[in-house]
Amino acid sequence: MIDEPVKILNGKNVVLDIVEDNIYTWTEPTFGKGVTLEFSKAYVIGRKDWGEGIQDCVWQLNGRTFCDMSCLKGKLIKKFPSKRSDYSYQLRHYSDGKKFLFYSEEIPTFDSDDREWDSMKYRTLYCDDYGVNLIHCHEGYKLPRINICVGLKKASAEFFRWLIYAGCPHSKFPEKI
What we know:
Strand content: over 45%
Largest sheet: 10 strands, mixed
Helix content: under 10%
């Protein structure tokens, strides 16, 4: 295993912190139920200056390099049906062929702060040599933080089908909750 799975390679207005809460709730698209995921570690890339968003931050997760939210970019393979029109669930792949699940959600905005920091929610999930990882962020005109969950340890049984879509080998599957 890599010493620290998440590293910042370049970025002037960012700080990397370990987060104590390693539980994440994944919302199922077809029945809207929350599914519990437990990870080994959780991190947040946040901004030092609260007036500025994260920009040009180059970071790594288990050796895979991203810039800001480039972890969300990939070619569409399949769209999944959703009960809500403001949710989008997709299977995509990065330029190197690695499959990942992509989720986006439009968040209603009520003021300029919402539009600036919190009008969209994104998440991506993929499997690498070290396990299953999830990246989650909210953004508006600016990006306030990137949450990163590393090494899925436990998951509700309903979630396992998503791991199959993402091309995760059974040897990397977590324990069932």
